[in-house]
Design goal:
Blueprint: H1 3-29, H2 31-36, H3 39-62, H4 65-81, H5 86-103, H6 106-124, H7 140-151, H8 155-167, H9 172-192, H10 198-214, E1 228-233, H11 241-252, E2 256-259, H12 266-276, E3 280-284, H13 291-303, E4 312-316, H14 318-322, H15 326-329, E5 334-335, H16 339-351
Parallel strand pairs: 1-2, 1-3, 3-4, 4-5
The structure holds cobalamin (B12).
Cobalamin is lined by residues 71, 74, 131-132, 177, 181, 184-185, 187-189, 191-192, 201-202, 205, 236-243, 245-246, 282-284, 286-288, 314-318, 336, 338-339, 342.
Length: 352
């Protein structure tokens, strides 16, 4: 086993106990905080530290410090919107670094410390990272109107808006990439900055899934290619709209598509691939701490009996956008930024 894997395993093993220890350490330093925190806040604190450790472990495993920096930048914004002072975050990162250094060997700490130090400097830096910024285009007014309907609970109006756009000639591809995708990202940003509730986010996401299903009759082009693809998310991954969009883009290009959705166990995917025998598998992951599950899924698929060696595997989702060439590290054949690119890359890989 390599050192990066060993560090990951060790950190994940101690993550729960360590998060409690860090809370106690910080309470000792800051009696004011110890007095002010109720049980709920203590739980949230421990969860946040456990989260930091998970992201650190995954970034070390992937040899991608950018994954951890990106997360700390995200956390900074998230905690600021919850009125947690940045000095508290900085202090807890310092305490965490000390405790990790006690638990790990010198050789391991040589790999861990640069990430912890750069996390602390991200907290001290001016900027804040708020999700991935959306760019404006000719459908931005439609996206705004659509989101406005959703925020006012007017799901039927949101649906009618999209259907009338499509009837007027806007393609489903444009609706997906220039309306649904930026709206979902904006919903995420508003949730991250505490401007909308989890309930509002769930309502909007559910509504968009409903509207997407109403677009189903518009997906079929009539021209069928003799090609099959399967899309899945890894075990534990709940973000499924990106995977669904990717699948629908292939359907619109005449492929036969099989969308397995969120949270799929590896064995289930392997069995399905053996039955369907597709040319392409698309794996989606949004949470950074699922990247190693993507690698494990690919490794198991490639070594399973009955899987054709020509099967091409594409990966995509948030962490693959953040970390350059992460797709190679997980053993995929390629990565694409969005659903449109995914189709052209797959066509190229299969023709090669
Ligand atoms: C909706 C949503 C949820 C829903 C998902 C429901 C569902 N049925 O899908 C629920 C409520 C379950 C959820 C849960 C969580 N979420 Co959430 N979620 C979102 C949100 C708002 C939208 C996701 C979405 O629909 N995007 C739209 C699609 C179209 O975009 P996409 O996924 O990027 O897909 C495109 C490309 O990436 C690419 N692509 C995607 N997959 C693939 C695969 C291949 C092979 C290829 C080639 C390309 C490709 O093509 C797609 C189409 O162009 C995002 C915001 C965001 N910025 O994405 C947050 C977001 C991803 N969530 C976030 C968080 C923190 C969480 C939770 C941890 C919250 C919590 N405390 O519990 C949990 C984790 C759950 C888990 N274990 O997976 C953060 C992640 C931050 C980070 N730094 O990691 C985000 C960014 C919100 C934010 N701005 O803070 N979430």
């Amino acid at each position: 086993m390599g050192i990066n894997q060993a560090i990951k395993d060790k950190l994940l093993k101690i993550k729960e106990s360590l998060s409690g220890i860090i809370l106690e350490d910080q309470f000792k330093l800051r009696p004011d905080m110890a007095k002010a925190y109720n049980e709920n806040q203590k739980n949230k604190y421990r969860n946040d530290v456990a989260w930091i450790i998970s992201f650190l472990a995954e970034a070390i495993w992937a040899r991608q410090p950018a994954l951890f920096e990106e997360f700390i930048s995200w956390l900074k914004t998230f905690l600021a919107s919850e009125k947690v002072p940045l000095k508290d975050l900085k202090e807890s990162l310092e305490l965490l670094k000390n405790r990790i250094n006690e638990a790990c060997s010198d050789e391991e700490n040589l790999l861990i410390n640069p990430l912890m130090e750069s996390a602390i400097s991200v907290v001290l830096s001016e900027g804040q990272k708020i999700s991935i910024p959306a760019s404006d285009n000719h459908l931005t007014p439609v996206a705004r109107k659509y989101m406005d309907y959703l925020f006012r609970g007017k799901r039927n109006d949101a649906l009618s808006l999209i259907i009338s756009e499509v009837e007027a000639g806007t393609t489903v591809r444009e609706i997906y990439l220039d309306v649904f995708q930026p709206v979902q990202y904006e919903i995420g940003r508003l949730w991250q900055t505490n401007k909308i509730s989890v309930a509002q986010e769930h309502f909007c996401t559910g509504a968009t899934q409903l509207v997407m299903s109403q677009l189903y009759p518009y997906l079929f082009t009539g021209e069928k290619k003799d090609r099959k693809m399967v899309t899945t998310c890894v075990s534990g991954e709940l973000h499924e709209i990106g995977a669904r969009m990717v699948t629908d883009f292939f359907e619109m290009e005449g492929w036969d598509t099989y969308y397995l959705g969120a949270n799929m166990p590896v064995e289930g995917v392997i069995k399905f691939l053996c039955e369907i025998k597709p040319q392409l598998l698309a794996i989606s992951a949004t949470m950074t701490f699922h990247v190693s599950a993507v690698e494990e899924m690919i490794r198991n698929i490639r070594s399973a009996p009955g899987i054709p060696s020509e099967l091409k595997i594409l990966v995509g989702g948030y962490p693959f956008k953040v970390a350059d060439r992460l797709w190679e590290h997980v053993g995929a054949d390629g990565f694409a930024l969005d659903a449109l690119e995914a189709v052209s890359l797959a066509e190229k890989l299969i023709a090669a």
